[in-house]
Specification:
The protein is α/β, with parallel strands linked by helices. The protein contains eight helices and five strands. A five-stranded parallel β-sheet has the order 3-2-1-4-5, sandwiched between helices.
């Protein structure tokens, strides 16, 4: 049995949650990314949103934010305005850049704690959508290949 590298797009809510607490699925997911068990995919939009929220709501976590982006092997996806416009047909304008990046990054999962994403049927985009807990619950099955 071989294993496959799973590409997981991390919404800002997951990263913020992981920075706020060393417990829970969000933190475990970042630990898996650091161990390169999964490929963590993000976009500039996610980075900016995390930074903005950390500065405003969790300023004590700023050093953790800086360390995270220095050490974690994130894959960065760039999107065009055209891709964002297309994505906005499926989700609100604020979240469209994230959906566009997940689609463009050809990920296996979009992981979020945001109800707007969790309502999506990701299969229509070629990936699953769920919480960190949903993803972790399925991880061993996901890593198996035939």
């Amino acid at each position: 049995m071989s294993t496959k590298q799973i590409k997981v797009f991390l919404d800002s809510s997951v990263i913020i949650s992981a920075l706020a607490s060393k417990r829970g699925g969000s933190h475990k997911l970042l630990a898996l990314a650091e161990a390169e068990v999964v490929t963590a995919v993000i976009s500039d939009h996610v980075i900016n949103e995390v930074l903005r929220n950390i500065q405003r709501k969790l300023p004590d976590a700023l050093p953790l934010f800086e360390k995270l982006f220095e050490t974690l092997p994130f894959q960065l996806v760039q999107v065009t305005q055209k891709e964002i416009t297309r994505a906005s047909k499926h989700i609100n304008t604020h979240d469209a850049p994230v959906l566009a990046a997940a689609i463009s990054g050809r990920v296996d999962w979009l992981v979020s704690l945001d109800k707007h994403f969790l309502r999506l049927k990701g299969e229509e985009f070629g990936f699953r959508v769920g919480t960190p807990g949903d993803f972790l619950e399925r991880l061993s099955d996901l890593m198996k290949t035939e």
